[in-house]
Write a structure and sequence with these properties.
mainly alpha
């Protein structure tokens, strides 16, 4: 397949990008090189090769989700500017 100005403009329109006319002449050889490379890849024999979803076979090891009390409420509130026994007080930022 050979790329021409009309194809470049169509691809740019589909991709919703603006390409100036002076850029089209420089894009034609680049796009043709890309297509030539892709055609070369199509010549490879890939029978027996499983498609990859991930590049490695490692599996994520999930830890058990256990609730722990890491810090007490008093320790969490001791550096707060304004608070009561259980909660932080913050300034109101949303108006009705």
């Amino acid at each position: 397949m050979i790329i021409d100005k009309q194809t470049i403009n169509k691809v740019a329109d589909l991709a919703r990008i603006a390409i100036e006319d002076k850029e089209v002449d420089t894009l034609i050889p680049d796009m043709n090189k890309i297509l030539t490379f892709m055609e070369k890849l199509n010549e490879l024999d890939t029978t027996g090769v499983a498609p990859l979803v991930y590049m490695n076979l490692e599996e994520n090891i999930w830890r058990e989700d256990v609730v722990k009390q890491e810090i007490s409420v008093e320790d969490g509130l001791k550096n707060a500017a304004k608070h009561n026994e259980s909660f932080f007080f913050v300034p109101k930022i949303i108006e009705k």
